[in-house]
Amino acid sequence: MAPADLGNQGTLWTWTIQSFMPKTPYHTDETPETFTPYGVGYVELACGLKVESRLRENTPEQLTIGMPMKMEMITVRKDEEGTDLLTFQFCAAEEQH
Amino acid sequence: MDVAIVGLGMHPFGRTPTMSGLEQGAAAVREALADAGTDFKRMEFAFGGSQDSGNADSLVNLLGLTGLQFTNVANGCATGGSSLNAAYSAIKSGQYDVGLVVGFDKHDRGAFNPQPADWGLDDWYGETGLMLTTQYFGMKIQRYMHDHGISRETLLRVAEKAFRNGSLTPTAWRQTALSWEEIDNAPMVSEPLNKYMFCSPAEGGCALIVCRADIAHEFHPRPVYLKTAVVRSRNYGSFEVFSPAQPPEVADSPTVTASHAAFELAGVGPEDIDVAQLQDTEVGAEIMHMAENGFCDHGEQEQWLADGVTEIGGRLPVNTDGGCLANGEPVGASGLRQVHEICVQLRGDGGARQVPNEPKVGYTHVYGAPGISGVNILAR
User: Fold this and answer.
1) pLDDT value at residue A94
2) B108 falls in which pLDDT band (50, 70, 90)?
3) Beta pairing, strands A68-78 & A50-55
4) CB-based contact, A7 to chain B, within 8 Å
5) What is the ipTM of this complex?
6) Using the 8-state DSSP alphabet, how is residue B304 labeled?
7) Model pTM?
8) Interatomic CA distance for residues B338 and B344, integer angstroms
9) Per-residue pLDDT, B169
10) Contact B129 A40 (CB under 8 A)
11) Which tens digit of pLDDT belongs to each residue from A21-78?
């Protein structure tokens, strides 16, 4: 087995929107009052592999199967020492018109 | 040796604050024993399970310390299917003559909150908000609607049918039909699925008495024969819940493989089925499972629902008791409820929801995480 560069771009294979704050094990700095809905989808990479990911876009109007997507890093929360814990998410690779 | 189902018992699904899950299971067993005109002492074996309500074999404390072989089954949503499969083999092999299959559960309100480690996943998956079954169901039907031209109206039709059928079913949890507008305007849970398009965790118990076909009439005048009981797990590439990544080629779901095997073993085809129970964890599941079980082509569901093919009076009635949508899902009992309902229909005891023209062959299908499916074919 060897590392493979999957790139950081793809197209949206399917999507949904997480409209309510999940119960544990969800763990961010949000409260039910500050919770912001987020998109969830599978992004199909050039090699055909589909990666499940949070999506920055979070309304049906912003999301269409087949749209180009790119990866970015976001902060999930701060740990006890105040260090940012990061994860990946995907967002639209072009301005949506 | 063929296998017969000769006793049916159910503790109504929904909420019963005064009873534990185990007690609801015992109530279902007592009803099944009475239906078969027999008693617990006669049971030579039992297979049973619950996800959240303790060990099924604790039922002996409530039913009798008779020393029978009692095997606990834990197979998620397929617990009932796996229990029935084991009972089928026990009779078919000649090892036993008569026994019990039972499932029960009592879940907390609201969605399940599974833990990543129990599914072989790392903590980040849950912490960042991907550990929700509702997301998977939304994403699977979203892609399916895109690929096969299924409209939102078809999702609404399935929900409308479920609650209408539930209103005709005395043991159902949701007994009130809902209007198109009520369903249409319900709060969104996970696009494109809203509140009335999902089933909820619930409580309830279900039990079946099974025996050798040649002694079936000792127990009940209208036995239902279990032609086959199949359980299959997923293949590489099938699109399942809690998958951080998906290989390039999407493989058939375990539903497809279980269905193929069941039809082959039973020696019948989809066209021979008069009434069916298809897993409807949410409305999209029922739609996709119509095709995955071989009853129609992908995309044909759009026309089938518009034409009422799956209504009680249609060519292939599906989920005549309102399915999981109207009954909720006590995980351990849910698959057995499906079999119970098919037996009721084949006996002709469906009352207001009875399928007309004396159905002869029935079909049940369960599907659950992490990619498991059980199919039973029954005939009178």
Assistant:
1) 75
2) confident
3) unpaired
4) no
5) 0.95
6) H
7) 0.95
8) 10
9) 97
10) yes
11) 999 899 999 999 999 999 999 999 999 999 999 999 999 999 999 999 999 999 999 9
Beta strands B361-368 and B275-278, pairing class: parallel
Task: Tell me the C-alpha distance between B310 and B293, whole Å.
Answer: 14
What lies within 8 Å, CB to CB, of A14 at 6+ separation is: A41, A42, A65, B139, B140, B142, B143, B146
Give yes or no for a contact between B234 and B243, defined as CB atoms under 8 angstroms apart.
no
The per-residue pLDDT for B152 is: 98
* Structural domain count, chain A: 1
Tokens 């078919």: give the residue. B92
User: Does the distance separating the beta carbons of A50 and B191 come in below 8 Å?
Assistant: no
- In whole angstroms, give the CA distance from residue B138 to residue B238: 16
Q: Which domain holds residue A86?
A: 9-92
Neighbouring C-beta atoms of residue B149, cutoff 10 Å:
13
Which H or E run includes A80?
Answer: none
Q: Is residue A84 situated within a structural domain?
A: yes
Give the Cα separation of A36 and B128 in Å (integer).
Answer: 13
Say which of B128, B143, B187 has its CB closest to residue A54: B128
State how far the Cα of B179 lies from the Cα of B353, in Å rounded to an integer.
19
Residue A97 located in a structural domain:
no
Does residue A14 form part of some domain?
Answer: yes
Q: Report pLDDT for B211.
A: 98
Phi/psi region, residue B44 (left: phi>0; alpha: psi -120 to 50; beta: rest), is alpha
Instruction: Give the DSSP letter of residue A89.
Output: E
The amino acid that residue B249 corresponds to is E
pLDDT, tens digit, for every residue of B269-286?
A: 999 999 999 999 999 999
Q: Does residue A2 belong to any structural domain of this protein?
A: no
Contact list, B197 vs chain A (CB under 8 Å):
none
